[in-house]
Amino acid sequence: MIFGALLALASSFSFSVNSILIRRGLADAGATAAQGAFITVLLGVPFGFAAVVITGQILNFDQVPLNGYLMIAAAGIIHFCIGRYCNYRSIAAFGASRAVTVQAFAVPYSIIMAIVLLGERPTAFMYVAIALILGSPLLMIDRGKRPARGAERTGAPPSGAARSGAPAVEIRMVEGVVFSLLASVGYGTSPILIRAALEDATGVAAVGTFVAYVGASVVLLVSLALPAQRHLIGAINFRYMRLFGSAGLSVFMAQLLRFFSLALADVTIVDPLMRTVGVFTLILSYLVNRRLELITLGVVLSVLVSFAGSAMLVIAAAQR
Fold first, then answer.
1. pLDDT tens column, 95-112
2. What would the pLDDT profile of 133-173 be if each residue is shown by its tens digit?
3. Which of 82, 88, 281, 293 meets the CB 3.0–4.6 Å disulfide criterion with 186?
4. Whole-model pTM above 0.70?
5. Cβ atoms 26, 35 nearer than 8 A
């Protein structure tokens, strides 16, 4: 259980790297959220196959029954096709740090689903830890500052406001909140399906990741038959692949670590720990995308509160 919790933290960090790269790609390269999702999902298939071979799990495909594969494929479609698109759309609308803040609402959703569907029973200590992780994003909310507008769409160099520390991007709050909440539903549903599929199987985390990516990729490729979706093919070029290729690798590693953690630990432990992605994203945003994000004192407080909750969950995992 403790190893599963640590893997969840590693997965969370990898997800934050993906958010930073996606934010840069959407702001500077001028790509759309759909194009970013399309590239990163398709890249997950060769990455997933390589992981299956390297881990030796290519011989373990028979450990998961057919209904398990169907659940994993469904999890991939929900998480990658729906959740990832909505996540990237929210990042484009109001930034990576704000997006992960709102997406913390995936925690109570997935925990309630785990309790109802999987019969998991968190302890009182775990409820306190979950509350800390869930409440910490509230400290990040900006209550009075308004960002500058214009540079995100043009890809122009930072203005004076950007150089002084304010993000040189247009903030579309309603769009960002709506798509963050939709991403939360997708991200909160997929762990339930993954845990249900892998609960009785061991040594198939890489297989599960590969199958999830294949399921999502099939849906995306079939969607190219629709005229409205054919513009996605244009995303496969060097301009976008530089950032989105790296983003695809980081998010694949995050998903692989997530599958391993869900195979070893309960959803009620893994999913709250995954919410530390907000903390990691804010730290990396300050270091890498400072002109695109706004870091305040509330961010520092949220880091302390969220890590306190994470530490409590790790302790709870060690005692089970």
1. 887 787 777 777 667 667
2. 777 767 766 544 444 444 444 444 444 444 444 445 567 87
3. 82
4. yes
5. no
